[in-house]
Specification:
72% of the residues lie in helices and 4% in strands. The protein is mostly helical and 183 residues long. The protein has one domain. Strands 1-2 form a two-stranded antiparallel ribbon. A two-stranded parallel ribbon has the order 3-4. Helix 5 packs across helix 8 (156-170). The longest helix has 26 residues, at 122-147. The protein is globular.
Length: 183
């Protein structure tokens, strides 16, 4: 098996870090407004980087056709609702709980950030959470097909957990607004 991993371990993260630093500096030079909003934006950028790292990396790229033929579509895609969640609950261990609760809390900061600074309806929030989570899963499928390796499984249960977590986070928006005003 021939795999190109050096690019992931060195060049890709280095490029992303440099690009993000450049964008942050450019953003803060142009941005006007309260300093607390700038700091929250900076923390939110760190959240975005973490979200990208968790959902898309590590990424292995395979060049061999022999390896590719070993992975059926099920290695890339899980479309049975609650199959993964049930599996996690039937075999409770550290990894399964990190996966389950990680997917639940993954979009919580996004829900709070968007709703503290904007007023969105419940319908718009649900649609956004579903679309955003579906978008992540679609990108994972495309990356799997491009890299020819099941790096991340696109899972319907991830969407269910992401949307549930996003909706739970909406309950904390009034508290987050009060904290923001008190800063």
């Amino acid at each position: 098996m021939v795999a190109i991993e050096a690019a992931y371990y060195f060049m890709v993260p280095l490029y992303i870090i440099c690009a993000v630093i450049f964008l942050i500096v450019k953003y803060f030079k142009r941005q006007e407004g309260p300093a607390k909003k700038k700091w929250i934006d900076l923390i939110f950028i760190a959240y975005w980087l973490g979200l990208i790292a968790v959902t898309f990396f590590p990424m292995r790229i395979v060049i061999s056709d022999t390896i590719v033929s070993q992975f059926p579509l099920q290695a890339y895609l899980q479309m049975v609702p609650f199959a993964t969640i049930n599996g996690y609950l039937l075999d409770i261990n550290f990894h399964s709980m990190v996966q389950l609760f990680g997917n639940i809390i993954m979009l919580m900061p996004l829900a709070i950030y968007l709703n503290v600074f904007k007023k969105w309806s419940l319908k718009r929030n649900i649609l956004f959470a579903f679309s955003f989570s579906l978008g992540i899963e679609c990108v994972q499928i495309v990356l799997n097909l491009l890299t020819r390796w099941p790096n991340k499984v696109a899972d319907i249960d991830d969407i269910i957990c992401n949307v549930a977590g996003y909706m739970i986070a909406l309950l904390f928006v009034p508290l987050a607004k009060r904290i923001y005003k008190a800063l």
